[in-house]
């Protein structure tokens, strides 16, 4: 990995600046350091040039420049990017972060969304009409990256993944063609982008389906002491097996962070946090989530009707920009006692207070879609287990990475987990194996699509799907 950016031939930069309407930024420009900063502060890459596109034509021009000058290519949307695939050393970044236009059509219940928009950019205006997109779980998450990977959000058990609520996309292929992909138009491309990310093209516009949810929903937020984690997690397992599709839950093993609503003496205490969001009438949701009291007496209970947008905003406090992150995952068919106990032990052994672990309940509408209906294959998993290393001091890089690897290795070897992980939170496997783990039985079809639309693997900065005829 380079520590300084390759200096491009001046004529390439000059031609780009003349050809696109947005800014072109190289290491010689004052804005370069800011341009290469992602949400994940652990990512330290040095592209040769950022092309800040403002239109589909700009995107096509930027792709052509990378192809014609044999430059590695990456695509930057909202800039969340746990893995850092948005940036490529010594290459060209198609920077779409300024393309944030959002248009809500309340009659058709759709949102037309630019590739640089984030969750909050869409959820806010949609909620003004009592509507919600099916998007990632954090306000600052980019729509493009999270949706194209699958889109695991707070409404998933009722309405499925983000890709299940994608009506159409506009994309630019590596040969410069601008195409629309939907169930009726270029359906093979539409299959590929739903879970396959940028494998077949650069998406420049999303049409999202909206649902009547919010602006106020029933929310559960309960905190239990770590000493009772075993009982709480096993009670949660029983509850999850009986939960209606309207209820989406997330359990987090964490240390209480220093945020405004927390008393100083509680900061740093290891706890079990149980979240729930009910995609239905508020009173009905409160009745359903009253059964969380079976978990025992909580340390804190912040449950009640709350704005749906507010649940997404919690992540801004818990996961601030520029912190260093190493996030990984494994899909599970069940919650095995040994895995639950190992996750509790891992929290207590974590090298920093910012490391945590999560249990994401899937099932419901997610599992009602056939595994081969989209490029995202893991429809039969009941849970996603996440290992979320977090730290601020670079001196903790090795300790936090080692911690994450150790607990992930344990979960990966469990009889309850399946061979696969979420594209946004990949596992500790070799690059050549990563894409096969993400796409499973859909890998070969996706590889054949890549051979048709990106035969030179120009879009291979993320999980690499080798083009195979």
């Amino acid at each position: 990995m380079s520590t300084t950016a390759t200096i491009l031939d001046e004529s390439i930069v000059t031609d780009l600046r003349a050809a696109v309407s947005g800014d072109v930024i190289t290491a010689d420009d004052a804005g370069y350091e800011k341009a290469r900063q992602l949400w994940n502060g652990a990512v330290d890459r040095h592209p040769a040039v950022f092309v800040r596109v403002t239109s589909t034509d700009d995107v096509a021009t930027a792709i052509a420049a990378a192809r014609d000058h044999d430059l590695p290519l990456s695509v930057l949307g909202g800039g969340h990017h746990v893995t850092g695939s948005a940036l490529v050393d010594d290459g060209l970044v198609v920077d779409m972060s300024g393309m944030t236009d959002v248009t809500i059509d309340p009659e058709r219940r759709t949102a037309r969304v630019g590739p640089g928009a984030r969750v909050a950019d869409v959820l806010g205006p949609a909620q003004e009409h009592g509507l919600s997109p099916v998007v990632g779980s954090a306000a600052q998450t980019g729509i493009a990256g999270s949706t194209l990977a699958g889109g695991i959000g707070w409404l998933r058990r009722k309405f499925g993944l983000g890709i299940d609520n994608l009506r159409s996309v506009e994309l630019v292929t590596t040969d410069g063609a601008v195409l629309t992909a939907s169930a009726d138009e270029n359906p093979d491309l539409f299959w590929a982008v739903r879970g396959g990310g940028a494998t077949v093209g650069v998406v420049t516009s999303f049409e999202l389906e909206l649902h009547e949810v919010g602006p106020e929903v029933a929310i559960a937020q309960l905190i239990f002491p770590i000493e009772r984690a075993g009982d709480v997690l096993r009670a949660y397992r029983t509850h999850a097996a009986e939960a209606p599709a309207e209820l989406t839950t997330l359990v987090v093993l964490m240390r209480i962070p220093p945020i405004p609503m927390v008393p100083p003496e509680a900061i740093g205490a290891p706890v079990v946090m149980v979240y729930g969001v009910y995609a239905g009438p508020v009173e009905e949701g409160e009745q359903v989530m009253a059964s969380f009291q079976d978990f025992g007496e909580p340390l804190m209970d912040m449950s009640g009707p709350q704005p749906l947008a507010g649940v997404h905003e919690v992540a801004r406090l818990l996961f601030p920009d520029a912190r260093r992150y190493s996030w990984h995952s494994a899909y599970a068919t069940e919650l095995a006692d040994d895995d639950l106990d190992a996750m509790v032990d891992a929290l207590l052994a974590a090298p920093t207070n910012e490391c945590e672990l999560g249990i994401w309940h899937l099932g419901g509408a997610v599992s009602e879609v056939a595994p081969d209906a989209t490029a995202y294959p893991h429809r039969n998993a009941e849970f996603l287990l996440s290992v979320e290393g977090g730290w601020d001091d670079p001196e903790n890089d090795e300790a936090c990475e080692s911690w994450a690897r150790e607990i992930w290795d344990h979960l990966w070897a469990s009889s309850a987990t399946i061979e696969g992980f979420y594209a946004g939170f990949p596992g500790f496997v070799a690059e050549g194996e990563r894409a096969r783990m993400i796409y499973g039985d859909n890998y070969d079809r996706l590889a054949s699509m890549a051979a048709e639309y990106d035969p030179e693997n120009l879009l291979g900065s993320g999980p690499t799907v080798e083009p195979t005829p």
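The first strand starts at residue 24 and ends at 26. Residues 18 and 443 are 39 Å apart (CA to CA).
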